[in-house]
Design a protein that fits this description.
The chain is an alpha+beta fold. Helices cover 31% and strands 21% of the residues. The chain contains five helices and seven strands. It is globular and about 55 Å long.
Length: 179
């Protein structure tokens, strides 16, 4: 059975596993609480609070490929480096977890949504290159996401973001051959 086949069998890791992993990173002292923020398809998100009042966010999964969180950390670092969008500061990454600064909630206003739209537009304008792809493959949930360099952006999008997923079983359940 592959790691993807275990998706339905994933269980939320016990808090003791999170404490242990944080201890290995030198982040285990002074923890006063570990609260589930969300349970996702691939991983779970936790708010870890320390005695001094400082919080961190920990994204965990013990059922993913060894490079899963390293790939996500690489992408967050690249997005943050553009200066167009704010990403949480990467504090640590292991095979089983991604440790990030805890960002506060955003205000849900029209102005906030317009600022996000401007930031995303700037991000896309700031990443114009003569080729399309990424230096490593990644993941879209449980699925491998291929990022092979391509000279044509339309071909990259068609091959690696649309057509690539047509052979996946869930796609066959959602689309009919005529689609």
């Amino acid at each position: 059975m592959s790691w993807r086949d275990t998706a339905a069998a994933i269980t939320v890791p016990p808090v003791s596993s999170i404490r242990h992993e944080l201890s290995l990173l030198g982040r285990g002292e002074g923890i006063v609480s570990i609260q589930s923020v969300s349970v996702g398809v691939v991983g779970d998100v936790w708010l870890v609070s320390y005695h001094d009042g400082s919080p961190i966010i920990v994204k965990t999964s013990f059922d993913v490929p060894p490079d899963f969180f390293a790939v996500e950390a690489d992408g967050l670092t690249a997005l943050g480096a553009t200066g167009y969008v704010q990403t949480a500061e990467l504090l640590d990454v292991t095979e089983h977890m991604l440790v990030l600064e805890a960002l506060g909630p955003r205000v849900d206003t029209q102005a906030a949504w317009e600022a996000l739209a401007d930031d995303l537009a700037g991000l896309h304008l700031g990443t114009i290159h003569d080729r399309f792809g990424w230096h490593r493959h990644g993941y879209l949930g449980w699925l491998p996401q291929h990022n092979t360099w391509t000279d044509d952006g339309h071909a990259f999008f068609a091959e690696h973001r649309l057509l690539r997923y047509l052979s996946e079983p869930l796609t066959g359940q959602a689309l009919e051959p005529r689609d």
